[in-house]
Amino acid sequence: MSDGRSVASTATGAGSEPERGDREETVTRGTDRAGPHRSAVGTGSRFSAVDRGLHALFARHADAARHARDRDRYRATAIRTGFDVLLARMYGLSWAIGVVVAVPVVLLGRGLSPALLARLDAALAAGLPTDGVGLARLPPEWIVLAAAVLAGAVAKRGVVRGGGVYLRWIATARRTDIERTLPGAVRYLHALSSGSDTARGMIRKTAANEAYGETAVAFRAALNSARLTGSLDQALGRVARDTPSNDLLAPFLLKFREHANQGEDALGNYLAMEGRMLGHREDRARKRAEGFLELLSELFIVLLVLPTLLVIVLTVIGVIAPGLSEPVHTPVGSVSTRAAIVYGSAAFILVVGLASATMVDRLRPPDQRTRYELPTGVAALCRSVTVNPRSAAAVVAGPAVVACVGLANAGVDPVNAVTLGYALFAVPTGIVSVRRARLDDAKDREIKDFVHAVSGHVSLGRPFPEAVALVARDVDLGALDADVADLAFNLSLTTGNERAARNVLDRSTNVDVETDGNAATGTERVAGAEAGTERIAGAEAERKTVRTAALNRFVENVGTPLAEQTVGLITGALDAGSDTQTVFETLQTEIGRLYHQKRALRSAMLVYVAVGWTAALLVIGIVVAVNLHVIDGFAQLSAVSGASAVRFDPGTIRPERERYRFYVVLQATMLASGWFAGVASRGWYEALLHSGILVGVCYVVFAGVGLL
Asked: Does residue 508 have a pLDDT over 50?
């Protein structure tokens, strides 16, 4: 639906579009990543004239031994361009960058004077055990030319090396994605194995499901290679050879090929065992991520508190070291050393908070992330504003900006105007995100009960649509009631045409049809039976289509990652002819495992929410205590320094200025802590809520104790 349904990186209905995983494609030598790395670049190819020119100039480097590692990395990527064309582009770019770097060196070197060369030669002589290198005796043009050539060569070499690093990054990203998606793909294959699909059909359905990311890409590559070679076994071996996941996907593909040749039972047993092993591997990886997150939280606290302590120390030292208050001239104006350090500390805190929150978000499993679509149209946007954080952000952003500008025009301090405007934007958006998250949590709880109830009816021999209808009528599913009722209605549309077709078949085979007062002939009855059979086949195909559409609509209406990960199993498995009871047993196990993982992750992350809030409140307490007791004490000491033996500059400590600087650092700390705590809780939208509340708390505390 368009009114703010959340979407994840998963997709359902794989079985309804088998052509997506097995679509006809023109596969050339340049796009067959498992084959040779040469591409056919001729006058009739799809490559441009620039590519043909670069290929003619630099393609010879593709066979060089120094690019052997790059060739291996290229095979592990999903780049469709041939390796020789890609390498020719990199060399062409490297020459262009080399010229771009060398020309400015020549232009700047035209003003090189002999006096400057003499000073440079003297500096080298002072640092070397010789009398210099004789730069002053060389013509300046030669030195400029040598410097330009050296700079251009370094830049050119750096671009070529950067291309190899780029290939390595892509291969690493693919390996990470395969490790994330392969367990789900194996469980999906296990659900398909109870049906009538062949090994090729199972791979095709899995490849068509975008939920499995780079694993699906590898399966599609195997299908394309099998279409070219005519052998699925050979294609699987080729993909296993070229995949970046040598320790996970490669052995799986080889064992899948081996067990597929042994029969359906052997393949099903292997997939069940492999699914369990990959599940244990996921658990171990999750525990490692939790350990890293614990270390990250400790580092976050240290980096968050240290800048505040640094500002306190600088304030105290500033009394006895007035040099810190002397202005430093910069291109944008003059600023004191102490002020530069204070505002630099605030910027550092923001960077630490943003980086820490980003790392926490990266450590969260991708199937536990939720993103939201912005509805199209003003009416849909307004309808979804209470359930879609993205819609709420779009609606609230305008008034928040207007409020910020209004506060600034009313004479409010710029920092307060910006932070209060941020709070006016962040808090309503965060409240909507929490409300939506709680609704999604309720739906996830109920969908587990829904699958359990449907599985019970299916185990009694009832058809899937009838089981859903009974559950919708008899079971109270709370937040899921409307969605289940809609699913039951849509599934009921799949039974009408099939029932009508069977009635035609029954009448044509069991009843003598009267035609013009005479009994129907045997030929007429056979024709009627064939027509009934055709209608049954058509009704069966339509039933699968409608069932797939109904399940996809159900997943879209529920709008949670858990629903998308689990209900998609039903679609592909039932379309493959799998036993319904077996499918729902697998689904029960899968949804129970995923729901347990979600609850465990939520419980583990709440600790880091508390860490963020504790750090923020601790810093507030420290800063308020310093401002109330230390700053005023030093101000009084500076005021009476004339009557004492130790003299201080009265302008070194100005309470209003010091409080303002502390306030800036403190608000930066509130933002960083709120981002860390919110992302640890549920994501970036909740980070807005936590940071907005902490910003408001900081303002209220400072204003309440009279520091503003």
From this structure: no
Q: Give the position of tokens 């010091």.
A: 658
Distance in angstroms (rounded) separating the CA atoms of residues 29 and 82: 8
Query: 180 with 366: CB under 8 angstroms?
Result: yes
Instruction: Give CA–CA dist 62/403, Å, rounded.
Output: 60
Q: What is the pLDDT of residues 635-680, one digit of tens each?
A: 565 555 555 555 555 556 677 888 888 899 999 999 999 999 999 8
Q: Which of 428-432, 458-462, 483-487 has the lowest mean pLDDT?
A: 458-462
> In angstroms, rounded to a whole number, what is the distance separating the alpha carbons of residues 680 and 686?
9
What is the sign, positive or negative, of the torsion defined by CA atoms of 657, 660, 662, 668?
negative
Q: Which domain holds residue 535?
A: 462-559
Asked if residue 287 belongs to a domain, the reply is: yes
Pinpoint the alpha helices (H) of 230-263: 232-242, 249-262
Return the half-sphere exposure (C-beta side, CA atoms, 13 A cut-off) of residue 51.
Answer: 17
Q: Is residue 295 part of a domain?
A: yes
Torsion angle defined by CA atoms of residues 251, 598, 690 and 680, in that order, rounded to the nearest 10 degrees:
-30
Same domain, 28 and 141: yes
Do 67 and 105 sit in the same domain of this protein? yes
Supply angle C-alpha 641, 646, 649, rounded to 5: 50
Q: How far apart are CA 383 and CA 404, in angstroms?
A: 26
User: How would you classify the pairing of strands 327-330 and 333-336?
Assistant: antiparallel
Beta bridge partners of 287: none
CB atoms within 10 A of CB 284: 9
Token code pair at residue 101: 């770097």
Q: Is residue 454 part of a domain?
A: no
Q: How confident is the model at residue 417 (pLDDT cuts 50, 70, 90)?
A: very high
Going by C-alpha positions, the residue among 571, 669, 584 that lies closest to residue 621 is 669
Domain boundary among the residues 208, 230, 262 is at 262
Residue 81, φ and ψ in degrees, nearest 5:
-75, 145
For 346-389, what is each residue's pLDDT tens digit?
899 999 889 888 888 887 776 677 778 888 888 888 888 888 89
b/e for 229-247, b at 16 or more Cβ within 10 A? eeebebbbbbbbebbbbee
Q: Are residues 423 and 526 in the same domain?
A: no
Residue 287 structure tokens? 């525990």
Do 117 and 208 belong to one domain? yes
- Give CA–CA dist 383/388, Å, rounded: 9
pLDDT tens column, 282-308: 878 877 877 777 787 888 888 888 888
Task: For residue 621, tell me if it sits in a domain.
Answer: yes
Question: How many structural domains comprise the chain?
Answer: 3
Verify that 80 and 162 share a domain, yes or no: yes
